[in-house]
Amino acid sequence: MSLRKLLTATSLVMTMAGAATAQSTLVYCSEGSPEGFDPALYTSGTTFDASSHPIYNQLVEFKTGTTETVPGLAESYEASDDGLSYTFHLRAGVKFHANDSFTPSRDFNADDVIFSFMRQYDEEGEWYDAEGGSWEYFNGMSMPDLIESIEKVDDMTVKFNLTRPEAPFIANLAMDFASILSAEYADQLMAAGTPELINQAPVGTGPFSFVAYQKDAVIRYAKNADYWAEGLPKVDNLVFAITTDNSVRYQKLLAGECHVMPYPNPADVAEMKENPDVNVMEQEGLNVGYLAYNAQVAPFDDPMVRKALNMAIDKQAIIDVVFQGSGQIAKNPIPPTMWSYN
By mean pLDDT, which of 119-123, 153-157, 290-294, 330-334 is the weakest? Predict the structure, then answer.
């Protein structure tokens, strides 16, 4: 199945006997409703799972289950010797999805890359405020200060010019906010006076196309028969059955009402592992729990006090009691699955 980064969840469970096969439907019991379907506007993993992962691609992408970058909509790229520019060579023949109101007239090209970033970058552009939201990740990661300009070298080549060398720049472009949208679709929506539909009726190049969303209940997707990655996706239909209660998700899994669920109750994991029909997939997540102090006021302005508190807290006891052993003690503020952790 091609749920891409979905498999990087801290804990994910699937039934073996009920696992989906080719020419079938995969039902994923998701933990919540998406805020929308334009991933650049949001920061939650629940929204990314429902939008950027099945519907969109990025120039480069994270290899499933890791933070290693691999080619996406860019087949290759090169950086200048001074680290101030990156040139991306785009993948030819990539098709955008169609829906009831839009049929693409061309394949993916440099115009789509330029649009996808400039709408977040250009404060004077017509798309900057068109969706009524803000570009949380783009701004939070200081991309407006980092990017000096984005050039269309030709239809299949794009060059990013930076204000300074930035070691994680490529990894940043694999993140959800950097999903590539159709400039042609955007132009059509803006001309019709309905720019908000880009967040409600999304069009991308990903493994699945958006079909319908019933709020707080179900999201339906269909296989992208023209998907550029050979052999993917491996199911015809993808369904997100929105189920907010962890225990209910597990019961639906056991009843065969869904094939995959994330985030089980820690107390249920041992039982799940003993069930031969359930496959529990685990790895370190991309989140770190921490206790934050206001270091501007006493006594927390004293580094010795902060170090003493750090030493006094029994972190292993918290993991054992609160998380039922489903965690590990953090060594620093960066999770071990992230680039540059060590």
Answer: 330-334
List, for residues 178-187, the tens digit of each pLDDT value: 999 999 999 9
- Ranking 49-53, 215-219, 334-338 by mean pLDDT, the lowest is 334-338
CB 215 within 8 A of CB 33: yes
3-state secondary structure the chain: CCCHHHHHCCEEEEECCCCCCCCCEEEECCCCCCCCCCHHHCCCHHHHHHCHHHHCCCCEEECCCCCCEEECCEEEEEECCCCCEEEEEECCCCCCCCECCECCCCCCCHHHHHHHHHHHHCCCCCCCCCCCCCCHHHHHCCHHHHEEEEEEEECCEEEEEECCCCCCHHHHHCCHHHCCCCHHHHHHHHHHCCHHHHHCCCCCCCCEEEEEEECCCEEEEEECCCCCCCCCCCCCEEEEECCCCHHHHHHHHHCCCCCEEECCCHHHHHHHHHCCCEEEEECCCCCCCCCCCCCCCCCCCCHHHHHHHHHHCCHHHHHHHCCCCCCCCCCCCCCCCCCCCC
In CATH, which of 3.30.240.20, 3.30.499.10, 3.90.76.10, 3.40.30.10 is domain 37-45+57-193? 3.90.76.10
Cα gap 37→95, rounded to integer Å = 19
On the question of pLDDT at 238 being above 70, the answer is yes
Sequence spans of domains, the chain = 1-31+207-283, 37-45+57-193, 284-342
At residue 8 the predicted structure's pLDDT band, cuts being 50, 70 and 90, is very low
Cross-strand partners of 261: 13
pLDDT digits over 113-157, tens only?
999 999 999 999 999 999 999 999 999 999 999 999 999 999 999
Return the CATH number of the domain spanning residue range 1-31+207-283. Answer: 3.40.190.10
Q: Judge whether residue 224 has pLDDT over 70.
A: yes
